[in-house]
Structures are given as C-alpha cells and as structure tokens.
Design brief:
293 residues, alpha/beta, Rossmann fold, 5-stranded parallel beta sheet, 4-stranded parallel beta sheet, 11 helices, globular, GlmS/AgaS_SIS, repeat
C-alpha cells in the first residue's frame, strides 16, 4: 500500500478527532462578525475556498479565500487564517510575516516544529493528520473538518459517509476514462478544484473543474464518450441529462461532498495504478514548496 492510500483511508478517524478539537480551539478561530480571509497554497487554497463559502453561507461574516501569494494587502480584514500542512511554505510564511502586528492571524498546520509557529499569532496543530506523502489527502480534509465543525456544520453522518466512500467500489468504467471534469456549487466548488488537482498530481490525468452552472457556458463541449463528469453535491436541474446526451459518464455525488472527495482521491490512486504510476512520487513536486531567497 502506498503512503497516500494509507493516509486517505484514515480520514474518517481524523475527522472525528478534528471535530472534537474544534471546541477546544474555538477562541483562536474566527468569531461571528469578523471579516476573515482564509489563505493557502495548492490543496490548502482549495480548502480555503470551501471554508470561505461555508462560513459566509452560515451567516458568520464576510469571508474570502486567496492563494497566499495573491493576498490583497490593501483590504481590511479582522482575522486571517492560514492553512499549511508543512508550516514551511514560502508564500504562507512571507504573508504571515507581513501581517504580524497588523492583522490577527491563526495558522492550521500539521507540524509544530516549523517556522509558522512563531509567525502566526495563534496556531492549531493537527499532528495526527500529518502525512508522509507529497499528495495531500487527510491533512486537507481534516483541516476543513476542524473549521466546518467550528461552524457547527459537521456531524457523525459525515464520518459514516467517509467510511462508505472508502468501502464502496468506484463506478464501473470510471478508471478507464480519458478525461475527468469535476463540478461543484457553493462550498463544493473548492472540493471540485481539489479533486481535479489530485487527479493531475497522482495520475497525470486530464482534468478540469468548474462551478456547475458555468460548465454549461462552454466547458461541456469537452464531454464525450469515454470522458466523465462528476458532481459534488446536488446538481442543477437538467444537467445530468445534458451530460448523458453527450455520451459522457455522469457521476452523481450521493454522499456528503467531503466523502465524495475521498472517492475522488481513491480514483486518483486507481488511475495512477492503471497507468503504471507511483502516486507517492508525483512528477516535479515536493512535499513543501520552499523557494530560494
């Protein structure tokens, strides 16, 4: 078993721990009414997109998501939350350094022995969700669960769906598809983006991701027999039929969207295996992006 397989299989247990941890860390996480930015790089940026949509949708306050390198310094925020598995990512550390003493910051990380611990005002450590693999799975979903639980939006049913996602077989014919498109709405747009990234990292697969309604404004033209479209959450009326009319494979997300992401992670590993690739050794990637000064 690869590292990434071992780590993705542990996710429901990690989610349970993060949900319990959320209450203890409530004071260092954003409070209702704060104007918040959530930042990250790569996978963490896509989790930031999901968190921002969830928080604002729950009526807790204006919330934006940015790649750490694209943070708009002229905007006023009460609180910035940085997601960083390694605690060493250059863009995140640079941003926290610039914000220190100006805007309150909280970092969610997996490693307490890294520079992020001194640069952020507050930290939440998810050491049990750290990973050996380059390809992120459990840290990302556990950090999202921590913040989802902080909003009161996590339930035991999510963990049960996660176990179902690990046990149930993937849809027939999916692994053999030549192209994959992932769709989301609201907070699940970030999950769709992350599913596409997993497929590119682990399996070098041709993948795209869109807000579901935007898919009909051009991208649906890529859909054809031997290609798949996967919806995270409830699909817009009529979309499933439109995809089927193209001859493409339509995958309906029937589980909690976070559990659907677990299924997409499994797909990435399965496609990598079918193509003779090692998902623990993604091309041109390292576990943390540390740029030379």
């Amino acid at each position: 078993m690869t590292h990434v397989e071992d780590e993705l299989n542990s996710q429901p247990a990690c989610w349970r721990r993060a949900a319990a941890q959320a209450a203890a860390h409530g004071p260092v996480l954003p409070v209702p009414g704060e104007r918040v930015a959530v930042v990250g790089c790569g996978t963490s940026y896509f989790m930031a997109q999901a968190v921002a949509a969830l928080r604002e949708g729950a009526g807790r306050g204006e919330t934006d998501a940015f790649a750490a390198s694209e943070f708009p310094h002229r905007r006023a925020y009460d609180h910035v939350v940085a997601l960083t598995r390694s605690g060493t990512t250059t863009e995140v550390l640079d941003l926290l350094g610039r914000l220190k003493g100006r805007i309150r910051t909280t970092a969610v990380t997996a490693d307490p022995a890294t520079p992020v611990m001194s640069l952020a005002d507050e930290t939440v450590v998810l050491a049990y969700a750290d990973e050996r693999s380059v390809v992120q799975t459990r840290f990302a979903t556990t950090a999202l669960t921590l913040l989802r639980a902080h909003l009161g939006l996590h339930t035991a049913a999510v963990e049960e769906d996660g176990r179902t996602a690990l046990a149930a077989p993937l849809p027939e014919g999916l692994v053999d598809c030549a192209q994959f498109t992932f769709l989301g709405r609201g907070w699940t747009v970030g999950l769709a983006n992350e599913a596409g990234l997993k497929m590119r990292e682990a399996a070098l697969a041709w993948t795209e991701a869109y807000p579901a309604m935007e898919y009909r404004h051009g991208p649906i033209s890529i859909t054809a027999p031997g290609r798949a479209t996967w919806m995270f959450g409830a699909a817009p009326d009529g979309l499933a039929g439109q995809v089927r009319d193209t001859g493409g494979l339509w995958i309906e997300g029937t589980l909690d969207p976070l559990a659907e992401l677990v299924r997409a992670q499994r797909l990435a590993v399965a496609v990598a295996a079918a193509r003779g690739l090692d998902p623990d050794r993604p091309r041109h990637l390292t576990r943390s992006v540390v740029l030379a000064p």
